[in-house]
Specification:
Layout (H helix, E strand, L loop, with lengths): L1 H18 L8 E2 H8 L3 H12 L4 E6 L11 H6 L1 E6 L5 H7 L3 H16 L3 E3 H9 L4 H13 L3 E3 L4 E4 L1 H6 L2 H9 L4
Antiparallel strand pairs: 1-3, 2-3, 4-6, 5-6
Helix pairs in contact: 1-3, 6-7
């Protein structure tokens, strides 16, 4: 009974940490969770994730570098960021609640797909040219800034675009590529 109460308190604290935004970016670094929950925080998150399943939510782990092969170590988890996202991805109904137009979302999918096809980085000018073939020119500039500001894309000083934290957290890149290619996973 003591053990159950112990984990109940930790799960409650983990939910508070994950749901309430304290930084510019949502989510929490693993080291923050370890500091507040203890070294068994991966187990606490797994239990919380099982509880969130009934709400169609999940805890997503996003690594700064590439996802490690196999089971990640505690050190790798400490450097990762943890988010609460919708389980199974965003449906068309949720995209309406985002407040974005369907062509804005299509532009984002196009930009992300293009960057994936270029092995994770592409010149901004190339992405803008691609979008100008599909969208009015004035919308392209507005949308590119919106995608960057929203955390889906990142831009460096050389005008190279990369996939940012929100794309890694919210979008199943393999499923997106499969949808575009018309293959099943």
């Amino acid at each position: 009974m003591k053990r159950k109460a112990y984990y109940a308190r930790k799960i409650k604290r983990a939910a508070h940490i994950l749901f309430y935004r304290r930084h510019r970016r949502p989510g929490v670094k693993g080291w923050e969770l370890r500091r507040r929950l203890g070294s068994d925080y991966p187990k606490v998150l797994k239990i919380l994730d099982n509880h969130l399943e009934t709400l169609d939510l999940q805890i997503k782990t996003v690594f700064e570098e590439e996802k490690p092969a196999g089971e990640p170590t505690l050190e790798q988890l400490d450097k990762a960021r943890f988010y609460v996202t919708i389980r199974g991805g965003i449906t068309p109904k949720e995209t309406k609640m985002m407040g974005w137009r369907i062509d804005d979302i299509a532009g984002l999918a196009t930009a992300i797909s293009y960057i994936i096809s270029k092995k994770g980085k592409a010149p901004r000018e190339e992405v803008e040219d691609l979008l100008r073939n599909k969208l009015p020119g004035w919308r392209v500039d507005i949308n590119m800034d919106r995608y960057i500001r929203s955390g889906y894309l990142a831009e460096d000083e050389n005008k190279q675009l990369y996939l940012d934290w929100r794309t890694r957290a919210e979008i199943d890149q393999k499923a997106l590529v499969d949808l575009l290619l018309g293959t099943e996973s």
